[in-house]
Design goal:
40% helix, twelve-stranded mixed beta sheet, single chain, alpha/beta, 506 residues
Length: 506
């Protein structure tokens, strides 16, 4: 049978399940993904309740078992169970028999993270400078003109040595540029208008008022932490807990893109590898693309295309393939498509569009995709030679870890027991743009007051060469330092990547 031979790989592979053909499950016909093809990216799609989360868990378990680190975004809070052995039962035993699986309850080594420490997890923070203007514009919902203006503000801060660590730093720079003192600076950075700067300032203020300031700051998270293995050689599963911020979808989806872009910046080129260095699961992927600018979409496409050569695989998880732009979808070689609904004309249109994205198959996919049950999927992957495998309707294996959330107390204990907790838990507020600009304003006010006092009369001994008070102030070290920092470039501009994110200084 052509389908069976299409999945008979000789090298290491992940076992997804057993072939469904003519209504029968064939346990001897195993559907698999070659381990070496996991960095060719993938898509897991399907309507709500069709089993996408369990598929992620199944793939993540097998990757970890073969020594590959995994990153999972846990939007609803039900992936944390991967750290604990699963619970046997009649349904699990039946599924195992059907698909030819030897099921054994197994927990996998895991670390739990939370954005900015909101929720239960090791805090993951980014500095404003590292996050960059393109991703920040997406979070602030700026238009293209405002995005370009924000890029100029970052450029100005780089030129003036004003470190943008947290939101108050960026707000301080924008406030300075819109003040009477700073308006002249706007003329020198590409025509940034006071009105646009004001819009950005209001967006920042509103964003911070929603409690979003905790996501930005130091210590900045080092994404190389995701690449670790456990002492027993299994890959570490990094679970980003997002239930506490699931009402901020644009924020967490953009933050996930920052994590991916940061990995792209830091990892060396490795080309094709026997197994990935990391597989990154990007849940609720449609949120990333909603309202995205052309520049943003181009940057995503470029990152996904190029990160493969860094040994990183990316799986986008969403409801239908049409949620992912065509240029990005074209980069995804592995497909696991769960059931779709066709209750409305829009649903039917989406179904037809999904079918067109698959290779020719022996199935009537339009009918099949509306008829398969929970825990079943239509699969095609890349073979060991990089060619698409035949389309296979598959009954998926059951995860061996707990299919549900970890109890809150146990999760909290796991977080606080991590060696990384002490490294990232406590926020640090060092001197940066806000403190520097505040100090400069105080020094300038002091100098102005001294100059005003000197102007009330001539200083005794004006001809003796001692100089006036104004001369003394202007010639002072403090004033010269202020002039240098405000009027000249004191540092090299930070090198930025395709997203405008800064390279980490190690």
């Amino acid at each position: 049978m052509e389908i069976v031979s299409g999945y008979a790989f000789s090298g290491p592979a992940l076992d997804l399940g057993a072939l469904l053909w003519d209504g029968q499950c064939l346990p001897d016909a195993q559907i698999r993904i070659p381990l070496a093809m996991l960095n060719r990216h993938g898509l897991v799609a399907g309507a709500t309740g069709t089993g996408k989360t369990k598929t992620l868990q199944l793939i993540a378990e097998q990757l970890a078992a073969q020594g590959v680190p995994v990153f999972l975004a846990d939007v609803k809070g039900d992936v944390s169970g991967i750290s604990l052995p699963g619970e046997s039962g009649e349904k699990v035993a039946e599924r195992a028999r059907e698909v030819g699986q030897t099921w054994e309850a197994t927990g996998f080594p895991s670390e739990f993270y939370a954005l900015g420490g909101i929720g239960t997890g090791i805090p993951v923070r980014a500095t404003i400078t590292s996050f960059g203007p393109v991703l920040l514009s997406k979070v602030l919902q700026l238009n293209q003109t405002q995005e370009q203006s924000l890029g100029l503000i970052f450029h100005y801060a780089d030129q003036k040595g004003l470190e943008l660590v947290d939101l108050k730093d960026l707000r301080a720079v924008v406030t300075f540029l819109t003040s009477d003192e700073g308006k002249s600076e706007l003329k020198g950075i590409g025509g940034l208008s006071t009105v646009t700067a004001g819009v950005i300032l209001r967006a920042l203020t509103a964003f911070e008022a929603q409690g979003m300031g905790d996501f930005f700051g130091e210590p900045e998270f080092d994404t190389s932490e995701f690449l670790r293995a456990a002492p027993d050689g299994r890959g570490l599963v990094s679970v980003l807990e997002l239930p506490a911020v699931q009402d901020k979808p644009q924020l967490f989806s953009t933050f996930l893109m920052w994590l991916l872009a940061d990995l792209y910046n830091d990892l060396p080129e490795v080309g094709d590898v026997e197994k990935p260095k990391l597989v990154f699961f990007f849940d609720e992927a449609h949120l990333l693309f909603n309202g995205a600018s052309k520049a943003f979409l181009e940057a995503i496409t470029q990152t996904v295309r190029l990160i493969r050569s860094k040994g990183v695989g990316v799986f986008f998880v969403t409801q239908t393939p049409k949620d992912v732009p065509g240029d990005v979808l074209a980069q995804l070689g592995n497909r696991v498509q769960h059931a779709l609904r066709a209750f409305t004309p829009d649903d039917q249109k989406a179904l037809k569009a999904t079918v067109r994205t698959f290779p020719n198959s022996a199935y009537d996919l339009e009918e099949t995709l509306t008829a398969i049950g929970t825990g079943e999927a239509v699969i095609t992957v890349l073979s060991e030679k990089g060619a698409p495998t035949p389309v296979a309707v598959t009954r998926l294996r059951a995860p061996e870890s707990l299919m549900g959330p970890v109890e809150a107390g146990a999760l909290d204990a796991a977080v606080k027991g991590s060696l990384l907790y002490g490294r990232y838990a406590e926020a640090v507020d060092r001197e940066s743009a806000y403190e520097k600009l505040t100090a400069r304003q105080a020094e300038a006010a002091s100098a102005s007051a001294a100059a005003e006092a000197a102007g009330k009369g001539k200083t005794e001994g004006a001809g003796s060469g001692s100089g006036s008070v104004v001369d003394q102030v202007v010639g002072s070290g403090i004033f010269k330092s202020l002039a240098r920092s405000l009027g000249t470039q004191i540092g090299r501009e930070i090198s930025r990547s395709v997203f405008g994110t800064a390279r980490r200084r190690r």
